[in-house]
Amino acid sequence: MTSEDIHRILTEKFSGENRIRLLKYALQDQFLIDKNDLVELCMELYSNPKLYFDYLACITGIDNGPEKNTMEVLYHINSLVNELRIVLKVVLPRERPEVHTVSHIWRTANWHEREAYDMFGILFTNHPDLRRILMPADWQGFPLRKDYSEQYTYHGIKVKY
After folding, report:
1. Strand 123-125 relative to strand 98-100: parallel, antiparallel, unpaired?
2. Which among 73, 77, 92, 146 counts the fewest CB atoms within 10 Å?
3. Residue 90, SS3?
4. How far apart are CA 124 and CA 146, in angstroms?
């Protein structure tokens, strides 16, 4: 099954102009979707027997910087049974990057979403335990954002040289 076949199946289910756009890239195609369609679309990808995307491999946060004023969340999902791999892409406003959790669909999303929150400040609505996972709970800022300013000290310890 090709990306075009998957796109056709999804657009039949989710009608509407440009709700799901297929972006063709050399290494791996991406499906650009609206953040409001994410949960319903992921549920379809998981529960449709023709697709059965049963494994969320990774969630990647991207800060496009203040110039573009957007952030992105990429969902790398696989169908192990059908030997399919796709990437879903959601573009968010940089001021308040927020999208619904998919941790109730794929349990691995729990930790991936926590990492994207911890490093980029992306909020995952209805996440069961959205708190820092890599940085201390009282750390200031989000280290992988392009506008991040390092703290000079943390609890009296010099952290920036």
Report:
1. parallel
2. 146
3. strand
4. 20
Residue 27, CB-side half-sphere exposure with 13 Å CA sphere:
1
Q: How far apart are CA 77 and CA 80, in angstroms?
A: 9
Q: How far is it, in rounded angstroms, from Cα 141 to Cα 136?
A: 11
Q: What is the pLDDT of residues 25-37, one digit of tens each?
A: 878 889 999 999 9
Q: Which residues of 83-114 are buried (b: 16+ CB within 10 A; e: fewer)?
A: ebbbbbbbbbebeebebbbbbebbebbbebbb
Cβ atoms within 10 A of the Cβ of 75, count?
A: 27
The amino acid at residue 114 is R
Strands across the sheet with 55-63, in order? 20-23, 30-33, 84-93, 70-79, 55-63
CATH dotted code for 3-158: 3.30.460.80
pLDDT exceeds cutoff 70 at 16:
no
* Model confidence at 107: pLDDT above 90: yes
Rounded Cα gap, residues 84 and 11, in angstroms: 18
